Amino acid sequence: MASSSITDFYAGRNVFITGATGFVGVTIVEKLLRDVPKVGNLYLLMRAKKGKSVEERLEELKKNSVFDRFKEMQLESRLTKIVPIEGDVGLDNLGISPKDRQTLIDNVNVVFHSAATLDFFQSLKETTNINLKGTRRVVELCQQLKQLDSLVHVSSAYVNAYLTEVEEKLYPSPDDPEKIIQLAETLNDEALKALEKKLLKDHPNTYTFTKHLAEHEVANAASSFPCGIVRPSMITAAWKEPIPGWTISKNGPQGFFMGASKGVLRRLPLDPSIIMDYIPIDVVVNGIITTGYYVNALKAKNAGRPAELQIFHLTSSTYKPFRFDLMADKINSYLHDYPLNSAVWYPNLRLVKSLWVFRLSAILFHFVPAFFLDIVTRISGGRPILMRLHKNVWNSLNTLERFIFTEWHFDSKRLLALSKSMDVVDRKKFVIDIGELTWDEYFSNTIRGVRQYLSKESPKNLEKARRKDKILLGLHVALQLLFWFGIFKLIVWISGVSSAKAALILPVFYYLFGLL
């Protein structure tokens, strides 16, 4: 078998991972265990919560669908390399016991810091503690590690969201981190909220603001040990690995495909002509692992001294741009290729360019059906949630508008140069160049993955779901005919015109409804 520089680098090295139970973290674990058989121990920072110990949470982690292919390959014995470390990036010293901390100090060689709070609506107090101070705590641990070869910090392409043209470089800090930490620690949430707009300046939310500050925590340590920062954009389902279309994340397109396939999400505020920067999870993970190797290799070339901080964009906007214009007419066909047996109505998703038009259409196509479906759910003994879900979307629109209708261009020349510098084996095993990605095929796989991994519907019931989809189509058409017949009769009754004249007026109403 041909040699792999990256695989050879990680062989025998122990890796410490924060955020290991998240979308990125658990995929890193699977990739390392599957493709780097001689990797050392993987120390995962985990919280004990909901009355479960970290050992119990680890057993739950091992049941994650990310390991489905892993288990088919009969690699379960490698799961013994996982070592849970009880802790929390939001606590002093990461909440790690002195004994466990010493274990890390003596053994860890590579650190992947992916833990963060991703909530755009989180208070500045909380995001400062998790994103900023949490990163500082990880860096402080790294400074104590006896055999540290590299630190990779998972940031976000949107840390510079106040710019629409962004390069792979460190931009000036938006504020003094010490001042922000002091304010977060001394002021209550109400007082901090009053200062928030002034502090954030051009940043759209506390998430991008604190993640930007966190990059400078890593930059401050870059002269002490090899450091790299990766900035993924919107992380989406797997392109190739571990299984095409695999996902456990409901963020971004996966979330609205899930709602659309149920038949409850029928309108989406989105301009199909705008570039949406999506990047598959496996490309992100490959970028993280490759960066860990690369920054250490630079140190070796630099006479044993850490090179300058390396920053890479894991993005698609300037290299493989995607617009929904490319497949707006295909989304619904994909939804009907892989329908849900649990669908409550016939899927039919439309993209709406205007936020106020979306609000108007949401009343008719979301809230009215949700009201009646929740009544049916309540009568049948279920838990009505649709009205609440649609209200949450409605209330978040103003905050999310900037991300929905802004086009960013994230330069990725350095990442592509890194890919070209890799040997042939590594380029195939740790793919970070998305040049061969075909968006049509990718989103078809994504919708199939959403069906299986988010909606928990087995491929075995697909034919049954397709039969139900045809029945729902018949009901959908029947309801539309009934609706327009009702509108026709209403025109006759209100205006007093003849049926012939009402028939001429009806297309006007049909056109107006078609705008929603």
UniProtKB/TrEMBL annotation:
Subcellular location: Membrane
Catalytic reaction equation(s): a long-chain fatty acyl-CoA + 2 NADPH + 2 H(+) = a long-chain primary fatty alcohol + 2 NADP(+) + CoA
Superkingdom per UniProt: Eukaryota
Membrane-topology descriptor: Multi-pass membrane protein
Gene Ontology CC annotations of this record: membrane; peroxisome
Domain Thioester reductase (TE): residue ranges: 17-288
Predominant localisation class: membrane
UniProt keyword terms in alphabetical order: Lipid biosynthesis, Lipid metabolism, Membrane, NADP, Oxidoreductase, Transmembrane, Transmembrane helix
Enzyme category, top tier: oxidoreductase
Family according to the record: Belongs to the fatty acyl-CoA reductase family.
Purpose: Catalyzes the reduction of fatty acyl-CoA to fatty alcohols.
PANTHER family: FATTY ACYL-COA REDUCTASE CG8306-RELATED, MALE STERILITY PROTEIN 2-RELATED
Name of the molecule in the record: Fatty acyl-CoA reductase
Gene (name only): Dper\GL11827
